[in-house]
Structure formats: structure tokens, C-alpha cells
What we know:
By secondary structure, the protein is an alpha/beta fold. The chain is 28% helix and 25% strand.
Amino acid sequence: MEWIREFQAPPARYRIKPFWFWNGDMEEAEIDRQLREMAEKGLGGVFICARQGLKIPYLSRQWFERVRYACQKAAEYGLEAWLYDEYPYPSGMGGGEVTLAHPEAEHKILRHRQILLEHGGRYEENLGWSRILYAKAVPFADGQADFGAAVPLEAEIGNLQTEEIYQTTGLTAYNNKRFFTYRPQHILSGELPEGKWQIEIFLEDALGEFKYYGNFFDPCCKPAVETFVELTHEKYAQFLGEELGKTVFGMFSDEVGMQGGIPWSPQLPEFFKELKGYEIREHLPALYCRDYPDAFRIRYDYYDAMHKLFVGSYHETVSGWCRQHHLEYAAEVPSMRMTTQRNSTIVGGDTAHEKLGRPLEWIYDEYLYRYRSNAKSVSSLTRQLGHSFAMIESFHSVGWTMTLQDAKWMFDRLAANGINFYNVHAFYYTIASIVKHDAPPSQFLQNPYWNYYRLLTDYTGRLSAWITHTEADIRVAVLDPVASLWACAAEPFNGFAHHGSGEDKAVCDRVRGDWVYVCKELLFHQTDYEHLDAEMLDEAKIEEGELRLGRAAYRVLVIPPSQFLEKRAYDTIRSFAAAGGNVLCLGELPREIIDAGATDGSGDPASRQDLWQGFGWNEKDNLRFIEDLHGEPWWDWCQEMAGRLFAIGEDRNLVSSVRYDGKYDYVFLANQGGEKTEVRLDWKKRYGSVSEMSLENGGILD
């Protein structure tokens, strides 16, 4: 163990790096004192965050001079300085300056209205003052909406001033009474022939009031993103110069994403046409009507285009600037799929906001389906990209009653999930007045346990050093059911929720619920796994019966209940199986390839049979299809085929991690429950000795 010295005395790169909230007057003497306190208590560095309560103007010369001073002092004390790119958050607004420079980039959302007329006749609807994207009346034939016979209604839309005002004012001495009207509104008014009709309307509205700025920008508007970089990042480069990449280590981008339900951008139609070859505005009803012709493929195309547009506009732009300036790009953002963060050099998430006593199953049920809150997805993508650090922002809003015991309990769970970059929320410059209520606690010198904080920083530093210098023994991958969730119009930025009703919602809830069930049962049976996004498979290699991607190598691929697959996933599954890889399909066989032409959504058993013709489910030892997801112990087959270094007994309160460094093998166990537990541990090979490594003091006991 050449790295044992770093385990015993972890250097700064492995130690906690909190958000340092600059929420006061930011005096140099106090900045110096606080950095000295952090160094004494074993912190590894800080993210300098402009925060509500700040008394010096953000992005002013004074701001950048104080940042430069703090970075210099941090280096003197052996701390890493990291930058945070916004005031306060989410990223992209430049403290509000971006929408001043780009009023055309104000964030827009998609609104849908549906009007049912059972017998035709007259109709009238106030549509508000919104941009009309689509307005058609759809007749019914044989009980089904006939979208092919839809009647355009744009000509039936006009506008009226709808608010009447009487004022006692006048332009002459002869009259002081005036009548005015205000607030134009679009009015849809017309008449339809006898019969059942369904009027479909799609509107583009401004997001309106949001967070700290009164509005938000559209991260799909690349000129606005470039202005954000010019206003923020370029100014840091001017003031910090060659320190970027030396004493200043990286830039944090926070929470930027698309707002509302189904994401929308005015940039989307043109981009969609170039990417997919047809006009999305002509097919917007497919997003809400599953009986629209080829609805499932259109929905997939829609989300795929939005994903590529968003990533290309925001993440590629910001990460590209960081790369050019030798900075790590650390992002904690909502994702449409796991690969939303593939441009991050430090993939990040936001989880661990509980106190001791939360059941582990509650935590899994709450977080596993949200990429942003799922530590496993963060560490999975990190290994697949071949990066070194997986980051979690943790502890915001746990409250002032949070203790060091709560923190250790959460850090143990993060470590078991492969997290080795610990970013805590937050250290406050001051808690004067009402700033103390900014998503507390402050774990800094205002807190009674501050004098004992070194115990926590040493402990987590050793966890990080161990994780960084070893490799996870994870041989099972679970394919994310993104294609099926997109096909039922789940909302990816909102944890794949579906806020509608009917069959789409039922399918969405079932797919999402089954996905979570598969993942948590693997974890409860101590069979470690990683998430796998089909978009990553273009970079995968199949060698010696393993699916290899970055630092990861999988022997077992689990397909949770899914209706659709992407073609790259389907092709990889067939190639992996042919090379001797182990494939387990649960619940139902995917019935269609969603990005290989039209989808009928019929679920016809014949189409499933054609898709898997000659595959050999349950005929070959390495291919299993288990229909009864909840009735058979399918995880036993995963364990057998994975061939793990250690077998750990089932325990629904236990988190575990098995790792190796090429010479030694390691097991980490942490009880997340409230009672003592006993766990059986079996190892698959003979060891000459067994030692215990202490995370509390760095000692090694034989």
C-alpha cells in the first residue's frame, strides 16, 4: 500500500471542501482569520460563493480583489481555492446581468390546453398573452381522435383588451373623465360542425418570477451562455491570471437546467428540424396524447433533441472554457439522462440531507430515480469517464440541530456509494441577523462542535484517500430505462415525474418504480452495481466477456422492466451476450427499438419475438429472463455470474463497498440503522492475513 501515508495523514486534495458563503462585508482580516481556522481544523479547501447577504458588489473590482486575496491566503495555509460561478444560484445569470444583456433569452415554458366539445358548436377560450405554438381542432372518428384530419385554428385567434379602467383625468379643461382598457389577451373563438372535437393548444409563456432575479435565462440560448462566461469566467481570468490551474483548482456550476414541466426552449424547433428532419411544432400533441400517430418516437426525439441542445449550449461552452484555463469543471445540475454531465471533469450531485433515523429504504426510494440526488449515478459516470473524483454537495437545510454524528452517518453512506469529493453546504462568513436562516446549518466556527471538527475532516480525508487509491469491485451494471421514461413523457428534470393522468402516468410510475426496486434490492443484498446510460455505450469495449468503459468492467448487465431500447443499447446487448457476457432481463422484454424508425406502441408479442429472435433467453447459461420481478431471487444469479471478491450477507440497514488496489482487497461496512447488527462475510480466495484500517486515527491493526 504505497498510499498508506496519504491514508494516515490525508493531504488537502482528499479533505472536505465546503461552500464558503460570502454573505457579509468580507473584510480582509476576517477572511484571513477564517481561512486559518479552516486550515487548523483540517479542511482541504473552499468554494468561494457569493451569497445573499453579500455587502460588496458582485463582479466589481472590489469583489475580484477580495477573491484574489482569499486565494492567495488559502495557498499560504495549504488550502485549495475553488470558484463558484454565480450569485447566488442557479448558474448562468451572472447575478442577473445576463437577461439584461439578452432580454430575448428570458426562459420560456411550454403550456398545454385541451378543450373537449362533445357535440361541436361554438367555443371561446381566453389564451392569455402568450405566443401561440399550435392550435388545431381534432375530430373524432370511431371513438378515436383523428389527428390526420385536424383543422387549423390560427385564423380564429385575435386579441382583446380585457381590463377596463375609469380614471379622473383629462387632456383638456372641459373633461376630466377617461375610459381606458389594458392587458391584451389572445381570444380563441369560433364554431365547429356537429360531432365530438378535441381542441389542442400549445402556448409559449415566460417563466416569470424566479428565485433571486425576477426571471431566469434560457440555458439553450448559446449567445446568452457566452455572455455569462464573458461576464463571470473571463473576469476571473483577468484578475487571477496564471493562478488558474495552480492555486485555483476549479469552477463550480450549480443547478442550471430547464424549468417547468416538459422542457421547452424557443431554440428547440430549428435545432430539432436539423437533428431529426421534421417540424416538432406540427407534432406537439404527441407529448400529451399517447394515441397521436407515432407518439412514442416523437417524444423520444423531442427529449433527445432537448438533451443535446441543452448540453451543447451550456455544458460544452462552460466546460470548454474551464479546460482552456486548466480548471476542473465541477457541476451539480439536474440531468435529462446520466450523460448530461459527461462534460464534467468532476461529476457532481446533491444528496445527504437527513438526520440519523431516516430508514435506508426511505433514502433509496427518495433518491435513486433522481440523477442529481443519486450518489450511485455520480460515481458510476465518474468511473465510466475515467475520472478520479466523484462529488456530492451535502447537508443543506438539515437545520441547526445537525450534529457531527449525523455528518459521519451520511459520509459513510456516500463513501459506500463511491463518493470521494465531499462538498458541504456550508460555512457562513457570518450568521448575523437573518442570514443564519439561509438553508442552515453553518458547520463553521459559529457552531458549538467546531472545536471538534478535525475529527470529521481526518475521518473523511481517509475515506477519500482510500477510495481514490483503490478501484471498486463492481461487476454489475443496470441499464437506465431512459428511453421508456421519455416515451411516456416523464419529466427528466423533475426526477422523471409525470404530472398528468391516465395511462402515460401509470406507465411512467411503473417503469420508474420497477427501476428503483431493482436498484435497491441489489443494494440490500449487498450486490454493488453501477448505472449505465446507453449513450455511453458508443465508447464501450467488449473484451473477455466484460463490458469495459473507462475504469469500469461489467460481467453482468441488468435490464429493468422496459418497453423500449435505444439501438446502441440493443446492439451492445447482442454483442455482449455473443461474447459470453451475462444478461438478465427482468419483468418484461423490451418490445421495440425507439430510435430505429416508427413505433406502433402496440406491444404485440410478435414484435417482441422478432426483436429477440434467436437470442436464447433461458436457453443459455449467460442469458436469463425472469418475468416475476418480485417473486424470484434474481439477485442470486447476479452474484453468481459477477464472481465477486467477497460475499456479504443481506442486511437492509447495511451499506458496503468492496475495493482493491492490485495488491490488497478491502471491505467497508457501515450500519445505517439504529440497532446493532451482525453480518456474514465470506471471501472467495485464501488470504495470508487480515488487517483492520482505522478511519479515526489511521492505524492498521493485524
